[in-house]
Amino acid sequence: MNRVKQAVVAGCIGALTICCSVVNSNALRLGDSQEGDGNLAVSFTPTKTTVKVNEDVRFKVKGNKKFYLYLFSVGNDGTGSLLLPNDQQKSQIFKENQEYTVPDKNGAAFVADKPGTEEVIMVASTKKLEIDRGKYKSVGQFMVAKDEDIQAEIKALKLRAQEEKAQQVVQTAKIVVAGKPSAERGAQPGAGSAADDVAPFVACNKAVFKDGEKMLISYGANKAGYVYLWIADESGVHFLKKEKVDGERFNTAEGIAASPFGAQKLVAVYNAKGDLDEKAVNFAGIVDSKSSPEAEAKGVTLTDKPQNFAVYQLDISK
After folding, report:
1. Half-sphere exposure of 39 (CA within 13 A, CB side)
2. Are strands 50-52 and 168-178 parallel, antiparallel or unpaired?
């Protein structure tokens, strides 16, 4: 059996995560030149100025003094994201005259999922600045808000830095994303029931994995109840686990990417009472495989079509 299935952790920790981390693009109004006060100087450059669709985006940062780092993106759909700090990579001090890669190998990946120009705003400060999280909503490892709220937050950080007598640098980095958009990878909306207005979620820390790479699976729902997880590959649909959710936080589980290589789908199904028979779920129309080999072997008639589900497609390569 696929090691992704075998390595899902039974004990999950609460996490505000519901979807893949995505760097959004839009024309930023702060300009592309570096702004700052005092003598803090921070270089902020992407490791690659051109990336492919669904390729990780990373940056090199280096300052002449100790500093805290904040990264924002602004989306073309009227929303923006606080990329750093996030649930997986909290606020940290970056030491002077030392080059860092952001995110590091243990951090939540930034992934560009659409062709075009990506722009990310960096705010560096010699003192830790508090983020006003009142207007943000947790999405994946990150926080999202309206475009205008992100812009207002960046301006507010500059004022907070002045109040704290901190030195600060604001800079924008541009990245060209080449290739065709992949509609199949990432989160896919399920056929949720309008009657009870339940929205389950499932996602990974990114959409493309290499053999042996660690995976962070996030799942939950907007109402208290139970979420059941399956993974579908070329051999069928395999049940992973059942977990109670509180309707506010999202749970995480770890896995290891492995064969079969190619497209795979994570499926999350919500059930209020936790009495769903996982061996009798009909996946027709949700994934290509209609059932799991285990269910077929026992002669189960699959008639229970889930009404509240979510699908996340990922790719695993050698």
Report:
1. 3
2. parallel
